[in-house]
Amino acid sequence: MKPPPYHPAALALQALFDLATQTEREVARRLELNLTDYRALSALSHSGPVTVGKLAETLGATAATTTAIVSRLEAHGYAERLRSDEDRRHVHVSATPTATKDVMDLMRPLMASTNQHIEALPRIRQDAVSDFLSVAMHLMQDHLHSLSEKETP
Predict the structure, then answer these.
(1) Which residue has the higher pLDDT, 109 or 2?
(2) pLDDT for res 27
(3) Residue 59 pLDDT greater than 70, yes or no
(4) Residue 117 falls in which region: left (phi positive, over 0), alpha (psi -120 to 50) or beta
(5) C-beta of residue 38 within 8 angstroms of C-beta of residue 31
(6) Within a domain: residue 65?
(7) Distance CA 76, CA 60 (A)
(8) DSSP alpha helix (H) spans, the chain
(9) 39 vs 79: CA distance, rounded Å
(10) Which domain CATH number covers 35?
(11) Number of folded domains in the chain?
């Protein structure tokens, strides 16, 4: 049976997802992290300070596994634990400025060239690209959610 034909934009987006995964692996390697630790660092970079429990939930990992990940990130100087001033029992984890700098140093060339290309487009095409990417992101989130629901017993 022949697979259904897909629009070239849908095929390009799938190829982009594959390249994003490869880029993620390479950034992790350059930071001397395994992929799981890099994904935790990325989550921390996007979330700001969170508890280990919240980070574990985001990663789909146990608190014990996430504690080990945070310890490895701390050893690299990429994460820090911060005790709450109000309640010293509450500990939050955040990415360090060093982590942010090191990741940005690796991603800046791609971000700059992408930004330059988009800004060179006529405004109406810039808006179309932004709209498409926003819809694609929401479709991806919905798909991920539906896949996650199917795994739940």
Answers:
(1) 109
(2) 96
(3) yes
(4) alpha
(5) yes
(6) yes
(7) 22
(8) 8-30, 35-47, 52-59, 63-75, 97-120, 123-151
(9) 13
(10) 1.10.10.10
(11) 1
- Cα–Cα distances (Å) from 21 to 18, 24, 35, 65, 134, in that order, read 5, 5, 10, 22, 19
Residue 61, token pair as written in the block: 């990992």
6 in any annotated domain? no
Q: Judge whether residue 152 has pLDDT over 60.
A: no
Give this prediction's pTM.
Answer: 0.83
pLDDT of residue 112: 97
In whole angstroms, give the CA distance from residue 91 to residue 40.
16
Torsion angle of the four alpha carbons 104, 108, 114, 120, in this order, in degrees rounded to the nearest 10? 120
pLDDT for 79 beyond 80: yes
Give the dihedral sign, CA 64/66/71/75: positive
**94 forms bridges with which residues in the sheet?**
80
Residue 83 in any domain: the answer is yes
The type of residue at 4 is P
> Which residues, at least 6 apart from 80, have a Cβ–Cβ distance to it below 8 Å?
74, 93, 94, 96
Residue 43 placed within a domain: yes
CB 151 within 8 A of CB 60: no
